[in-house]
Amino acid sequence: MRPLIHPAIQDVPIGAILHALSDPVRLTIYADIVGQERSQNCSTFLQVQDKAIPKSTLSQHIKVLREAGLIRSERRGVESFNLSRSVEVDAHYPLLIATILRAHHTQLATDAAKTKKAKRKR
Fold it and tell me: Which has the least CB within 10 A, 15, 17, 44, 98?
């Protein structure tokens, strides 16, 4: 099994972080990981935004987040557990993660309101 790559935050360009979080599924996965105090098993994210995520696709999403310095992954047997590195990222790029997550939550609330309004019109 190949070793997991966890770059030093100082070596991660901001473009890599923004790229990693530009995908709505990855952003949702990351927001869920940040919101937890304990590490999250990868299988937790096989269903994201009411969509089934194939294991191979999920592995790729986790890899992108890890290589962008956003999460730390640890293998325990055949499972992989993920923990946010937001404190480290915040130390190097102050308020970046908080700003992105606040915008994500605002967008989710806006989308939910639009969906609710559309259902009432039916």
Answer: 15
**Structure tokens belonging to residue 73:** 């992954």
Residue 78 lies in a domain: yes
pLDDT digits (tens, 9 = 90+) for 33-56: 998 888 888 888 998 888 999 999
- Which two tokens mark 94? 């102050």
Report the predicted TM-score, pTM, of the whole model to 2 decimal places. Answer: 0.89
- We report the CATH number of the domain holding residue 90 as 1.10.10.10
State the alpha helices, DSSP H only, in the chain: 14-20, 24-34, 55-67, 86-92, 96-121
**Which tokens in the block code for residue 95?**
């308020």
Contact 82, 39 (CB under 8 A): yes
Q: What is the residue range of 66's domain?
A: 13-114
Flag whether pLDDT at 122 surpasses 80.
no
Strand bridging mode 40-41 / 47-48: unpaired
